[in-house]
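stage 2 :: seqdesign
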């Protein structure tokens, strides 16, 4: 299992399919292009047996801070710890002390299980409640914990 930064100009079909789990299909080419050209963004693919089974896209927002913009795992590989492993790898790679994400009700439990503090943003879109998730790594502790 390895994580690979995506820098190719052409999006691979497996990656396109994964991003379509986290974004509208018609927006994926522009989203991918932004990851390739913007130095503050990074899109990483999680590889198993040379197949892309997960992806995480982040945007650096300051020293030691980033936002998860996209996070997806192939349905056949979900609930195997891949998303959590991608988050940990990105945190180590960029020496992140703070990581945030915005999500829907379906993913709140996942973020909480990874140590994120979760707060409601209310009904951001008609009939759709959104949530703000924030993870802060505390130095000097054996275990990372979330904070408000």
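stage 2 :: out
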């Amino acid at each position: 299992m390895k994580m690979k930064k995506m820098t190719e100009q052409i999006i691979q079909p497996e990656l396109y399919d994964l991003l379509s789990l986290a974004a509208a299909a018609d927006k994926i080419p522009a989203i991918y292009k932004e990851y390739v050209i913007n130095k503050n963004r990074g899109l990483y693919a999680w590889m198993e047996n040379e197949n892309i089974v997960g992806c995480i896209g982040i945007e650096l927002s300051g020293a030691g801070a980033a936002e998860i913009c996209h996070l997806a795992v192939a349905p056949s590989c979900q609930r195997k710890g891949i998303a959590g492993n991608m988050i940990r790898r990105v945190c180590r790679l960029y020496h992140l002390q703070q990581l945030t994400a915005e999500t829907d009700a379906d993913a709140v439990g996942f973020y909480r299980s990874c140590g994120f503090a979760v707060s409601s943003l209310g009904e951001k879109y008609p009939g759709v409640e959104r949530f703000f998730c924030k993870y802060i790594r505390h130095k000097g502790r054996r275990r990372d914990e979330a904070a408000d």
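stage 3 :: structure notes
- The chain has a mean pLDDT of 90.
- The beta strands are 2-5, 41-48, 51-62, 65-73, 98-104, 117-125, 128-136.
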